[in-house]
Amino acid sequence: MYLDVRITEGLLDVACSVRVGTDEVFFSLAHSFSVYSVTDGGEPISFESVPCEQDPFRPPKNGYMVRNVKSGDIVVRYRGDLDGYFGYLCDDLIHFSFYNCWYPEEFMSEDGAEVSTRLDDTWTVVGGVYDRERKLWRYHTPKGQRIKDCNVLALNRAFYSAVDSDVLTVFCIKGKEDICREYISIYRSVRDFYVSLYRNNKIEKTNLVFIDVPDRHGAYFRPGLIVNSNPPGLVPGEKHGLAHEMGHAYGSGADTNSWEDWLNETTAEWSALLYDEEHDPESFENALNEHREWHGDGPLRLREAGDARPDNVHETGTLIYEKIYRQYGNNAIKTLLRTFDSLKEKNTDGFLDALCSGGEDALADFIRSFMN
């Protein structure tokens, strides 16, 4: 999939090119976009609106069906504004991603997608390469990335600067460079702890971007990228938050749109908690107290919303693991984390089966007791 992106008058104007092998093609986009042209081999082809499934933590979507495809060289052109989390088209910051449904996710392959964004070199597209001849930025999504994300993050150099090292590049609003340098040593410490914990290194050199925005959506992780909407400041919670996002290098792969997401979030959170236990015991207890406050007094139920992703997906698994921690100690937590990391197919059934195959029936039964 190739995406050519122009930004005009506060709107995205996108041409999405893809090669398909069927005579019918379905795709979806956020409701804030309007499709104005579809061509097949350069010739206009009709399309129609159809229903489509809606996804958690993303804006409403519209579905489209293209029929009677002949050549298979499809180009979809559409324009609109951004809706959803982390969507910005500002003078200092341009950002759109998975959270905004700005590209046809159905067209994404294992090879990822190439994006050309028509911005000049007064901008930096994080993870991109500037094409001086054409005056645009080229970005390719990481191949094999589990979340099908096309993530464009552009920073105006008049407002943002970068602090670089061998393990981490921190992007921040100008004037915050000194405090951002401290994140490099923390990142290195967390990385070394995780490599020891998991006995393998899945943490590549990363871009940590503190976006200067009024919203506080927290942070998110992608391979080689952490985006944080909180301002840089080394309070314990920020250290813990960075460790959590880094923990998603190991805590990922389960379906993020269903109840199975508890595996991703619990693995990432307990990676960070074990780091806190060793390096900052006060933060360890504070983080667990916050999870208890967020969850409230109700019962811990992993499938509280059936197969859907529950609102308390960050808390329930974390608090179940706390019970295991209090009863069996931190070696049991390490076993749970390493077992999930070792799975080829990331789901709860496979996770529990792997625990039993490793002689950890008691841990598997303990978790099963919270699934009803």
Rg for CA atoms: 22 Å
Class from helix and strand fractions? alpha+beta
Estimated helix fraction: 25-40%
Provide mean pLDDT, rounded.
94
The helix/strand order is EEEEEEEEEEEEEEEEEHEEEHHHHHHH
Number of helices: 8
The strand count comes to: 20
Q: Biggest sheet: strands side by side, in what order?
A: 5-4-8-2-1-11-14-13
Unreliable spans = none
Mass-distribution shape? globular
Notable features of this structure?
372 residues; alpha+beta; eight-stranded mixed β-sheet; five-stranded mixed β-sheet; 8 helices; 30% helix
Tell me what the structure shows:
The protein is α+β, with helices and mostly antiparallel strands and 372 residues long. It has 8 helices and 20 strands. The protein has helices at 177-198, 236-247, 261-279, 281-295, 316-328, 330-342, 348-357, 361-368; strands at 2-8, 11-19, 25-30, 33-40, 43-44, 47-50, 61-66, 73-80, 88-89, 93-96, 114-117, 123-125, 129-131, 136-140, 152-156, 160-164, 168-173, 206-210, 219-222, 225-228. A hairpin with a 3-residue loop joins β9 (88-89) and β10. It starts with a strand and ends with a helix.
Summarize the structure.
The chain is α+β, with helices and mostly antiparallel strands. The protein is about 30% helix and about 25% strand. The mean pLDDT is about 95.
